[in-house]
Amino acid sequence: MQVHFLPDDVKIDAEIGESLLDVADRAGVFIPTGCLMGSCHACTVEVKDGDIIRACISSVPAGREKLTINVFSDPTW
Prior knowledge:
Layout: E1 2-6, E2 10-13, H1 20-27, E3 44-47, E4 52-54, E5 66-71
Parallel strand pairs: 1-5
Antiparallel strand pairs: 1-2, 3-4, 3-5
């Protein structure tokens, strides 16, 4: 599956079930992290369909050919 990171316009192939943080790291896309358990919301990103997810506890989902992720820019992280 292809993962497309915005606003950097970076595209990379990923495996279903692969951690989103691992995919971002391989792509050279920085997603801030804090607790790595999803409770601090530092790693919040938006999927193209409008869902807000936490990248540290999310993986590449099945059932899609392409996944577009908008990485927020939060100055506190």
